[in-house]
Design goal:
homodimer, about 325 residues, Rossmann fold, 12 strands
C-alpha cells in the first residue's frame, strides 16, 4: 500500500509553496508521485491505482477521474484529499455513498470571495464600471452633476449567512453597523454573535437596504428565488451584488430591471451559464459591473486551500473530525 | 451686525440635511440668508457684506470671493465657516495673515478618501480596469492563465501617515498586518498606536511592499518626489495607487513605467493637471485604473462636512479650540 499524490507542477507551486510540499510528503508517508499530465490513458491511471493500492489520494484539477468500480480498483482507498473546489468530476457519487471520505478547499476560500464581494460593493457605490469606460475610452471627467456614494453608514443586506457572509461581515464592519441578513435556517446566536440583524422576508431584504449582496447556496428551493418583483424593490441609488450562484437569480429579469433602472448599480461575478455568453444582455450595460467568476481563491491564496488540505490530512491520520467533509447532500449541491 | 449664510440649494440639501440647517440657523442667531446664484455682481456682494457687517460667514462653493480690503468692507468679520474644502478662491491670503479664523471640511472627509484608496487597491489586485473592458467590450472570460491576487496578507506601504492614512489603516487591518509607512515627521507613538511599522527610506517603501499607496501632502519638498527610479522598484505583481496629490509623482515617468511593466497595476484618482487631459498617456492603458478625482466626500457624506462645520461653529461661539483651522502655512499648502 502506497499513498498517491497526483498534482501538476503549477498545483505543487501554488497550493503547496514554502515547505508545504515537504509537510504533505511526510504526512502521506513518502507517497507515489503522479504528474497528471503524464498519464496518457484511463487504463494507465487505473493500473497506477491498482499497483499503489493507496489509503489516501491527494488530488488536484488534473487528476483523472476515479472509476465507478472504485472498491475493486483501489479497495483500501479511504480518503481523497482534493485540494481545489469541486469534486464531482473526480469522485463518483457512489463512492461517497459507500463511505469514501472526501474533502476539498471547503471553507478555506471564504475570505477571498468575501473580499470580492466588498470590492464589487465599493465599485457600485463609486460606479467603477461607468468611470472605467468614461476615463479610458470617452476621454471623460467628472461634472458638478456627478453622483458619488460611499459605503459608510449604508444599510447592507445579505442573502445567506454562511461562512462567506460571516467573513464578509468582518470586512463590512469598518464601514457600517447597519447589516442585516435573510437566512431563515441560521439560528439567532449566529446573528447576535456577528452583530447582524435578521430580515424576516426577502421583500424586506430588498426594499430596506441600500446594498443587497447575494450569497445564498443554490438548492432546488433557492433556484430562481430572486424574482423581478424583488429586484424592482431595490431603493433608488441602491446596488445588487451577486458573488454566490447565478441561478439563484432570475437573470432575464435582472437584465430587464438593470436596463429599466439606471438609478441602481449591479455587479456580478457569477452567472447561470458560465462562461457568460458573448451575447449576454449584461455585456455593455453602463450600470452593470461584470467579473468572469474571479471570487474564488486568487492564485496567491491557493496556499490557504493547501493549508486546509494539510490540516485535514493531519486530522485524518489522528482520527480527528475533518473540516467540511462531503456527504451525499453536499455532493449533490456542489457545482 | 448680522451673520451671513451663503449656500446654494444643493449645498443646503447635501451639507445640512436632517435638522442640520435649523441647527446652523440657531447657532448663527438667525443669519441673513444669501443665495449665491442670485448675487449678480461683485458690488452687490460687497454691499451685502457692508450692510450685514457679520461676525460669522457660513460659506460654500458658490459664495463670491471676499475682497482684499476685507477689514474695510466687513470690519467685524471674525470667522468664516466654509463647508467645502479649498478656501483659496474665497479668502485672500492677507485675511489669514490678519487673523481671520477660517475652517473648511478639514479632516471630516478623510474616511471617504481612505475608502477610495481601499477600492483602488482591491481593484488593482483583481485587475478591475482590464476585466471591465474584457467583459463589456471584448466578450471575454477568464482562462487557466488568468492572474488574480488578493489583498490578504499582502505588504502595504503608505507614503504619508496623516489623517487619511490613519483612517485607511482601519480599513486595511481586516486584510493584513503588514502595513508600513514612510512619513519621517510623524512620531513613533503614532506608528505604534496604529500598528504600522516605519519605513526609513522611500526606496524601502517601494521595493519592499506589494502595494504602495501615495498619500503625501504636496509641498515644495514632496513635488516630483516619486521618481522613475522609485517606481521601477515596485516588485513584480505589485500596485501603485495615488489618492493624494498628482504632482507628488513624476507622472511622465509613471506613464513610462506603466507602459514598460504590464506586471504592475496602477490606479490613480489625482493628477498634476485636472481635469486629466484627453490625450493623457494614462488613458487607454490596460494596467492603469483611472478615476476623475472622486476620492473626496461623496455626495451622501457631505453631511459629515456639515457636522464638522457645525461643531466648529459651536466651538467658536464657546471660545473653544477649533478643529483644523487654517494658518498661513496650511493656506499655502492647499490646492
Amino acid at each position: 500500500m502506497k499513498n498517491i499524490m497526483c498534482l501538476n507542477e503549477i498545483e505543487l507551486e501554488t497550493f503547496l509553496p514554502e515547505g508545504r510540499l515537504d509537510k504533505a510528503k511526510a504526512l502521506l508517508n513518502s507517497p507515489h508521485y503522479v504528474d497528471p499530465t503524464s498519464v496518457s490513458s484511463k487504463d494507465e491511471w487505473l493500473s497506477i491505482l491498482k499497483e499503489c493500492d493507496p489509503e489516501i489520494l491527494m488530488a488536484g484539477w488534473k487528476t483523472p477521474p476515479l472509476p465507478e468500480n472504485l472498491s475493486e480498483v483501489a479497495p483500501n482507498l479511504k480518503y481523497v484529499c482534493y485540494l481545489p473546489g469541486s469534486i464531482r468530476k473526480l469522485v463518483p457519487r457512489s463512492a461517497i455513498e459507500n463511505g469514501l471520505i472526501v474533502t476539498s478547499w471547503g471553507s478555506s476560500i471564504s475570505r477571498t470571495i468575501s473580499e470580492c464581494a466588498l470590492l464589487l460593493t465599493l465599485s457600485c457605490m463609486r460606479r467603477v464600471r461607468y468611470w472605467t469606460e468614461e476615463m479610458h475610452i470617452n476621454g471623460g471627467w467628472k461634472t458638478p452633476e456627478t453622483e458619488t456614494q460611499s459605503l459608510f453608514e449604508r444599510r447592507v443586506g445579505l442573502h445567506g449567512l454562511g461562512l462567506i457572509s460571516q467573513k464578509l461581515v468582518d470586512l463590512l464592519k469598518p464601514f457600517t453597523d447597519h447589516i442585516s441578513a435573510f437566512s431563515p435556517s441560521v439560528p439567532d446566536e449566529i446573528y447576535e454573535g456577528l452583530g447582524v440583524s435578521r430580515c424576516s422576508t426577502l421583500e424586506d431584504l430588498f426594499s430596506k437596504n441600500d446594498v443587497i449582496i447575494e450569497l445564498a447556496a443554490l438548492t432546488p428551493k433557492t433556484e430562481g428565488m430572486i424574482t423581478e418583483e424583488l429586484l424592482r424593490m431595490i431603493p433608488k441609488g441602491g446596488a445588487f451584488v451577486n458573488v454566490g450562484r447565478g441561478a439563484v437569480v432570475d437573470e432575464d429579469a435582472l437584465a430587464r430591471v438593470a436596463a429599466d433602472r439606471p438609478d441602481i448599480q449591479v455587479a456580478l461575478d457569477v452567472y447561470g451559464i458560465e462562461p457568460l455568453p458573448v451575447d449576454s444582455p449584461f455585456r455593455g450595460m453602463k450600470n452593470v459591473m461584470l467579473f468572469p467568476h474571479l471570487g474564488g481563491p486568487t492564485i496567491d491564496r491557493r496556499r490557504d486551500a493547501g493549508d486546509h488540505g494539510l490540516e485535514n490530512l493531519r486530522r485524518y491520520l489522528n482520527g480527528e473530525d475533518l473540516m467540511d467533509p462531503y456527504d451525499v447532500r453536499l455532493y449533490d449541491r456542489a457545482t
